[in-house]
Amino acid sequence: MTETPQPLPPKSFDPRTFRDRPVSFVRRSGRMTPSQERAWEEHRGTYLLDIPHGPAATSVADGATGDPELIFGRRAPLVVEVGSGQGHAILHAAGARPAENFLAVEVFRAGLARTMIRAELAGLANLRLAEVNAPELLERYLPAGSVDELWVFFPDPWKKARHTKRRLVSDDFMRIAARALRPGGVLRLATDWEDYAEQMREVGDAAADFERAFEGEWAPRHDGRVLTAFEQKGMDRGRAIRDLAYRRV
Questions:
Q1: b/e per residue, 48-85, with b = 16+ CB within 10 A?
Q2: Global confidence as pTM
Q3: Is 156 labeled as catalytic in the residue annotation?
Q4: From 156, 172, 192, 243, the catalytic residue
Q5: CB 188 within 8 A of CB 151
Q6: CB within 8 A of 101, min separation 6: which ones?
Q7: What angle do CA 97, 120, 189 make, to 5 degrees?
Q8: Which residues have a Cβ under 8 Å from the Cβ of 31 and sit 6 or more positions away?
């Protein structure tokens, strides 16, 4: 699950204030099963990016950068998913689109371990994982204009009115997304929370660096987004799924 963008930490780090600002996740840790622990130890060297951390556990250290061409060993279109969870969407896409590179960004370690297990079983060579705060990775670690598609599927809706300011998709996130995406690159969004969908559309329409990549009220369902148990649960509760897509101009 994802939430709202994390600005760069101040030069003089103060642990009392660093996490006062919204970040791209709700929680970092969770109990892993023995098989997930084994997968983490056996496969993180293959799939997990070795990103130096800053003062917070999931921050990106000052000056740390990564070149996708070196990371993947080839030049190819790059798709980044923010809040990949257990990896269902990005694993399916990486298997279906072997000519492209895929980067899953998640801080829930058990979800990353599950993704590693499935990636290894599928023999995916075009998938990497990052255990960091996604806005920092997009703003600091990846080169500007290096991302072809950026996915944010079902970020945490922060349902209570007093918490909506913590939502990921905001004016500042659109600025960060514009920096990461190449001209013509696409930001894809999806949520089952109506007022969050409306907020996403409002900030997307207002972003000077983006234009709609759809016609009508909502974008058609992205055919690369597989139906997950999380999405099905929302539908079973009567919530409509709404997609949006914006092109970097």
A1: bbebeebebebbbbeebebebeebbeeebebbbbbbbb
A2: 0.88
A3: yes
A4: 156
A5: yes
A6: 68, 71, 72, 74, 76, 77, 78, 79, 126, 127, 128
A7: 45
A8: 110
What would the DSSP string read from start to end of 62-111?
TT----HHHHHTS---EEEEES-TTSHHHHHHHHH-TTSEEEEE---HHH
Q: Is the dihedral of CA 66, 96, 37, 155 positive or negative?
A: positive
Mean pLDDT per 10-residue interval, the chain, length 249 residues: 47 40 52 92 96 92 97 98 95 97 96 96 98 97 98 91 90 98 98 96 98 98 86 88 97
12's tokens: 């003089």
- The number of residues making up the chain comes to 249
